[in-house]
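Narrative summary of target 7.
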Amino acid sequence: MNADTPRTSKNPIIRFLNMNTSGQTSGRDLPLWRQLLLQLFSLFVLFSVMFPIMYILTLSFSSKTTRPSSLELLPKEISFVAYKQVLDHPTGNPVSFTELLRNSVFLSVGVGLAALFVAVTAAYAFSRFNFKAREVLMVLVFIPLLMPGVGLATPLYLLLNNFKVLDCGKDVMAIMPIFACDEGIKGKLIFNLRDSLLGVGIAITAGALPFAIWNLKGYLDTIPKELEEAAAIDGADNNQTFWKIILPLAAPQLAVTFFIGFIGNWQEFVTSWLFLSQPKDYTLAMTLYNMTGQYASSIPWNRFAAMAVIVALPVAVVYIALQKQIVGGLTTGGVKG
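Modeled conformation, tokenized:
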């Protein structure tokens, strides 16, 4: 005689653990014991993710500048003194929070828009036009994605460092490497492209373009060419087709590409730290690192935690607010129907 199946077993505990919890009348069953394991695993993942967040939040609401002697995940006090100190004077450098925020917005939003404009035009050319060395150029665009960002920092540093503006005296200016001061005159450095937000923006844009181009090209390939042919029959030229047909249809993916770039640019640290030397050009991410101090005992833990929350908050809020649009942009095709 065959043994009872788990669902028809006489043991009530076995029947209870094997009851179907999927809520579906067809398809694969989900026994209760498996449901419990999945829920426990989900709770473990949730705790792993929320642990550092809760710890930083607890530190940021503390009025003590030293690290707690015990593990605290829930704040025992609600003090905004650390946030006030960060907003009034983040570090010992004579740079206000407004200036740091402006620099971060310039690099994140400005670079994101510039990279998006260049990427969408290049992606459209790769997607629609057949020209010589098209495949070779596409591979060359892809190669930087295989290299670490730090590996590209040295050539970019040397390249941008060559662009300088010098005061040669007697109201004479020299723009290197095109022009230089007369022989024997060193000149006074007025502007160095490498040591500027503009130079860092150019370097970050160069690093963001490969992913943006390939991401947008894949999406533009899904837009039917018949729409462009119909527009051409109606008398539209290539520019009108691009601006009035292609861009509106690609708007969801443009938003996704910009947001992904915005996250990376907002939190970008390595390039800015290597290139910039003037505190007035520092970003929020650089300031967060600069707040750690020279020795561990000198770290203002509550201010550091408050700064970390402030830096992370804009990206988190925007992502939560646009989560549906981002997912839709990743899954929606070029034409609905």
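The radius of gyration is 28 Å.
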